[in-house]
Amino acid sequence: QVQLVESGGGLVQAGGSLRLSCAASERIFSRNAMAWFRQAPGKDREFVARISRSGTYANYADSVEGRFTISRDSATYTVYLQMNSLKPEDTAVYYCAATLRVYNRNAYRREDEYDAWGQGTQVTVTS
User: According to the model, what pLDDT value does residue 23 have?
Assistant: First the structure.
């Protein structure tokens, strides 16, 4: 049963913008903090951004701070990742993830903190 579905990826030139969406089931969305990870070719999957269940708090990887914004819409059970000023090094498959775990500043960037994952959406940034 697929509970997280990403969309919005594509091909964009450096300096451009994309907005990724993650459609969640009501059960997942209402109970979980949500996050985005990404995996570039030949590299490990890495943390990008996290948003609390309430939407009040957000955390970002240093590499995207100030360029990316994570948000959530409780009316549509959707989490967004607005990506601006994109760089070629942002090229990756982007994954949506959900966790029931409370915020832990030492752990929230780890993959094993998250219980549900989407199938990913490809983002390619050309120079």
Answer: 97
